[in-house]
Design brief:
alpha/beta, five-stranded mixed sheet, 50% helix, 689 residues, 9% strand, 14 strands
Length: 689
């Protein structure tokens, strides 16, 4: 008697996943099959429960076979069988999409290393039994990771064997080595390899955009003595001259003179002068100065940098406090939620709960006039509590990550421009930056209404919150401004894809339309590396940045939310070393706060647009992974809607980055957004998924 004959003898054994799985298991353990069948007979389950259990275990092939079994379906209603079949198809497609996403970045890494990845074979396995697909994927990941580690070890070996050329002094050589080592730690393997191949040089671009930590060989020397060396006093060690700033560097010499004055006589005026000189070195302005028994505190206006969000200028409208303690060593009075940067003269005290700006680090970079600000900011960023690293999202041009694919001539006098982009693509931030570049430009919040100001350049934001009537009123105001003013103002309007249709209906042909495309995977990969690098977070596996870029699906704000979830995950784990593994990325992707933020960013605005969810759900249900739907099939899937109606919704969803439209047809856009779309359109979706 074959084990499968048990199913024929006892039809009720189909009413449980254990017996079905046991019969089709790879082994021939008769006792295990009999026990599983007995358990099922003792507690039979409903049809939906059995299929759901198989799907939850990733047994898609067996679930499909069971739905084709007459004995299983004999008591099931036709509508239930149809729903269960759709459930299996949906779960299979979602699993294949997840595997495809994991393989996207992995294949790119493998190709660089010469490792072969049989993508279609892994996808086929996963579509039948998810466990086997992920098992094969994990084996390939280990192979690629091992090859990367070997490549990194080889580069580290080559870096260690690199000799200092006679034309380069020792300090510059050590800085070059530190820069390459930092690139290796951050996963910029190709940049590090190119730097090693080119050899040590003082004329080098940074391997990564986050500066390396300062190197100061005189950390054990008394502060007053080191300050004297800059002025030629005392027994100066050989080679110290490379740390001396140029004579024309007024900010550096003002700081050194202030330090010398504090060493000779310390009082409130001397401390205030020192902090003001330090602010000048950091290239920021002092908003106000406060003095107390704890010392002197100044509030500086800007410690931001592109990709460094925690110190964004708009995040700190009252300034960031820099504190120079007095001899009393008391703590300053700081409102809750703020940060304090303590200027440290000796060794920092890790228990004082402040960020430390060591004067020794300032000395190390003082001669590096063009990069000293960013190098000191990076030192502060590496100390930030991880739950504060990405604590808020706001429009801030001071942290904007420059993109190279912006079209030229955004602002033209001849014709108004409509800049169309999905939420999170940085339209408002771009407008703020353009406004800051010209004193003749004015940002107008369209939702407030009213007359337009007299300005040579009008930058219009907030159109997405207008009704159709309000959009018509806005276009009339713009037309009046351009026809009544001489010269006519240049106009740039930023809008989401759903506002584009209203504008085109109310003012056909008035605007030149520019679509802001999603960011490239390479750009987001580098942006992830830099955003995390500013706060000292580094990848254990270089390919982790590819995974972050893939999940962000071309949307920089989605990437921000993902980096925030990753930082919070590391903080909750209590990790002292700020290094993350692929498992941390997946944990961040599953984080409920991230899921809610992603939903509010991309899915929330579409709910008010009639038909958008219906079209997206049809694509999710009927477009197989890698096989897009034709327009005719999509029109059928949404109930035979007119082509113009379908095309309008497709254009909207494509603008949001949810769909990819090609000559072959319409399918889900690649990336994590496809996984989100499946969750958002699934029946009985949890609002936080």
């Amino acid at each position: 008697m074959k084990l499968s004959d048990l199913l024929a003898a006892w039809p009720l054994t189909r009413q449980g996943p254990e017996s079905w799985l046991a019969v089709f298991a790879d082994g021939e353990d008769a006792h295990a099959v009999i026990r599983a069948c007995g358990a099922t007979l003792a507690r039979p389950m409903g049809h939906a429960e059995v299929i759901d259990a198989l799907v939850q275990q990733g047994e898609f092939e067996l679930a499909t076979l069971l739905l084709q079994d007459e004995a299983f379906l004999v008591q099931a209603e036709a509508t239930l069988a149809k729903d269960l079949d759709a459930q299996v198809e949906r779960a299979t497609a979602a699993a294949v999409e997840e595997l495809r996403g994991r393989l996207a970045g992995l294949s790119e890494r493998a190709q660089r290393l010469g490792v072969r990845v049989e993508v279609e074979s892994i996808l086929k396995l996963g579509s039948m039994r998810l466990r086997e697909g992920f098992s094969r994927l994990k084996a390939v990941e280990q192979e690629v990771t091992q090859a990367e580690f070997e490549q990194v070890r080889d580069l580290e070996r080559r870096l260690g064997e690199t000799a200092c050329p006679p034309t380069l002094n020792g300090q510059m050589f050590e800085e070059w080595k530190a820069s390459v080592a930092q690139a290796l730690r951050l996963g910029a393997i190709e940049a590090a390899a190119a730097a090693i191949e080119a050899g040590p040089s003082a004329d080098r671009p940074p391997a990564v955009s986050v500066p390396t930590p300062p190197i100061w060989p005189y950390s054990k020397e008394p502060l007053d003595g080191v300050v004297g060396w800059f002025f030629g006093d005392g027994l100066i060690p050989p080679g110290f001259e490379r740390h001396v700033p140029e004579a024309s560097d007024e900010a550096a010499w003002m700081l050194l003179k202030a330090l010398k004055a504090v060493g000779e006589k310390e009082g409130e005026p001397e401390r205030a002068a020192l902090l003001q000189a330090l602010a000048a070195v950091l290239e920021c302005e002092v908003l106000r100065t406060e003095a107390s028994a704890a010392g002197t505190v100044i509030h500086v206006d800007d410690l931001s940098a592109p990709g460094f969000h925690a110190f964004g200028r708009r995040r700190w409208p009252k300034g960031i406090p820099l504190w120079l303690p007095s001899q009393a060593q008391a703590s300053p009075s700081v409102p809750a939620g703020e940060l304090v940067v303590r200027v440290v003269r000796g060794q920092p005290d890790p228990a004082d709960n402040t960020l430390h700006l060591r004067l020794q680090d300032v000395f190390a970079v003082l001669h590096d006039r063009t990069r000293r600000r960013s190098r000191l900011l990076a030192q502060l960023g590496r100390q930030l509590p991880l739950d504060r690293a990405f604590d808020t999202v706001m429009v801030d041009e001071s942290t904007r990550w420059e993109r190279q694919d912006l079209p030229g001539g955004l602002i033209l006098a001849e014709q108004p421009t409509l800049l169309v982009a999905a939420p999170g693509m940085g339209k408002s931030t771009l407008l703020a930056e353009l406004a800051g570049q010209s004193s003749e430009a004015a940002i107008v919040e369209a939702s407030t209404g009213g007359e337009l100001p007299q300005a040579r350049v009008l930058l219009i934001d907030g159109v997405d919150r207008l009704s159709a009537d309000a959009v018509r009123g806005m276009t009339r105001e713009l037309h009046w401004a351009r026809t009544s003013q001489n010269p006519a103002p240049a106009v740039l309007v930023a809008a989401r894809p759903e506002a584009r249709e209203m504008i085109e209906r109310s003012a056909a042909g008035m605007f030149r339309i520019i679509e802001l495309p999603p960011r490239s995977a390479a750009s987001l990969r580098e942006q992830a590396r830099v955003m995390l690098g500013w706060v000292g977070i580094e990848a254990e596996v270089p390919g982790s940045y590819d995974r972050l870029a893939f999940l962000a699906s071309g949307n920089p704000t989605l990437l921000f939310h993902l980096c925030r979830a990753l930082a919070v995950s590391l903080a909750s784990a209590g990790a002292r070393r700020r290094r993350f593994e692929p498992a941390h990325v997946e944990q961040a992707w599953q984080d409920s706060t991230f899921s809610q933020s992603a939903r509010e960013l991309v899915w929330g605005p579409l709910q008010s647009h009639e038909g958008a969810a219906e079209v997206l759900r049809a694509v999710v249900d009927f477009a197989e992974p890698g096989k897009p739907l034709s327009r005719e099939d999509l029109a059928w899937a949404v109930g035979g809607r007119e082509a113009a109606w379908v095309e309008s919704r497709v254009r909207l969803l494509r603008g949001y980055g949810l769909l990819r439209v090609t000559e072959e047809g319409i399918g889900l856009a690649p990336g994590g957004v496809a996984l989100l779309a499946r969750a958002w359109t699934a029946p009985a979706t949890n609002p936080n998924t």
